[in-house]
Design goal:
The chain is α+β, with helices and mostly antiparallel strands and 407 residues long. It has helices at residues 2-6, 16-29, 123-137, 152-161, 195-206, 216-220, 246-251, 278-293, 324-341; strands spanning 9-13, 39-43, 57-65, 71-88, 99-114, 142-148, 165-168, 171-176, 189-193, 225-232, 257-264, 270-274, 311-320, 346-351, 372-378.
């Protein structure tokens, strides 16, 4: 049966006018997580391409049986230009000692699903290879994906059969949203930046960070972006009322400062944890009831994650100075309160494993992932900047810029 079905697998572009119901059915049958344990399900809110549609170029493919037209798998991909390294500027008008970014066209694979009843038939491999064809046709120089370190089937598919290599192991940090608000330190002043100032700050301070998107302006002006927030010491010359722009700030920055942006995933998709015991659900509900009735105690409570819930994603974390990590903590508290107002159950971020500001990000270890696995593949030999060499062999930096459009 397996050999017969393999011969009639057709891979084609997703057609929302006729494929929507079938794709949603496959999504529902595909759990994310170890079988028999807690699993994470995604409700795409009727939009199967919601997690790639905000990228500059994107595609969704489906695999169907030609005999029955049954959809048995799907894959999404997108392409953008990001920083893959840095070099010293040769422009005589700029500072020759200041590094400038080296950009590359990068493709990203996500949402690979194969119906449980049609696995081990080579469908996943067919979908990946067809998606890579599209990447190459559109000039992508590298492709990468994220998968769980312990998802051996996924790791084997990409590293053994598709030629990907293990590349980076960032940390996913998840914090629950409590029924009570978190206090924001009075030793910090928070400023919400206009998108234009946020773009200028990111380009001038973080454009050489690995994976920084060259179209950061599109990210910051997207409807899902809830704002960029800057933390500075109180009593300095920078406040919301007196803010006069990034140029003045960077010409005379305070000793310590930090910045982050907030992305509203709730309006794109919802998540749900399944497989929890009745006792675990009861315990979680009890903590929420106590927290709601006695918010002044500020007791940590387990959010409602056993039914569809929303999240906010924190990205663009950065800062300078000895108190930058403490300022990040204040920014995270503010982001928590925004998520509470927005009806979200968790806030999440993803940072490099060795990110210095990681210590300032509150998170629950049980909800987080110490090592998310990113795998990468070099797609061609011609590159937009010959000096980059082979990015797949480059050592990791202290930081990465995680694009919220791909979370």
């Amino acid at each position: 049966m397996g050999e017969d079905n393999q011969c009639v697998i057709v891979v084609r572009e997703f057609d929302p006018s006729k494929d929507l119901t079938s794709v949603e059915e496959v999504e529902k049958r595909c759990e994310v997580g170890p079988s028999g344990k807690l699993s994470l399900f995604t409700d795409l809110l009727g939009d199967p391409i919601c997690r790639v549609r905000h990228s500059p170029a994107f595609l969704m493919l489906v695999a169907e049986l030609s005999s029955t037209k049954e959809i048995v798998g799907m894959i999404r991909g997108c392409i953008k230009t990001v920083t893959c390294g840095k070099k010293l500027s040769r422009n005589t008008k700029s500072d020759p000692t200041k590094p400038v970014p080296i950009y590359t066209k990068l493709a990203y694979i996500l949402g690979l699903r194969v119906s449980p009843s049609h696995r081990r038939m080579g469908i996943g491999l067919k979908l990946v290879l067809r998606m890579e064809e599209w990447f190459t046709q559109n000039g992508a120089e590298y492709a990468y994906l994220a998968t769980e370190n312990d998802n051996q089937a996924s790791v084997n598919l990409f590293t053994d059969k598709c030629g990907y290599s293990k590349f980076r192991t960032p940390s996913i940090l998840v914090n629950p949203v409590f029924a009570h608000r978190l206090p924001v330190s009075n030793r910090v002043t928070l400023i919400k930046l206009p998108p234009s100032d946020a773009e200028s700050l990111y380009r001038r301070r973080f454009s050489t960070t690995e994976f920084f998107p060259r179209d950061i302006d599109s990210v910051l002006n997207n409807r899902l972006n809830l704002g960029t927030f800057l933390a500075v010491p109180p009593g300095c010359c920078y406040t919301q009322e007196s803010w006069s722009g990034t140029d003045e700030f960077l010409s005379d920055p305070p000793e310590s400062w930090a910045v982050l942006s907030v992305w509203n995933c709730k309006d794109a998709f919802m998540l749900e944890v399944r497989g929890a015991s009745r006792m675990r659900k009861t315990l979680a509900k009890t903590t929420r009831i106590v927290d709601k009735l006695l918010p002044f105690l500020r007791l940590p409570s387990i959010p409602e994650v056993f039914r569809p819930f929303g999240l906010h994603f924190l990205y663009g974390l950065g800062g300078e100075g000895p108190r930058a990590a403490k300022f990040v903590k204040a920014l995270c508290a503010h982001a928590h309160n925004l998520a509470k107002e927005g009806g979200c159950s968790v806030v999440a971020t993803e940072v490099a494993n060795c990110e210095p500001l990681k210590i300032g990000v509150p998170h629950w270890k049980r909800l987080s992932c110490d090592e998310d696995l990113w795998c990468i593949k070099r797609l061609g030999e011609d590159y937009s900047d010959g000096s980059v060499g082979d990015w797949t062999n480059s050592p990791p930096g202290l930081s990465i810029f995680v694009d919220p459009r791909e979370f």
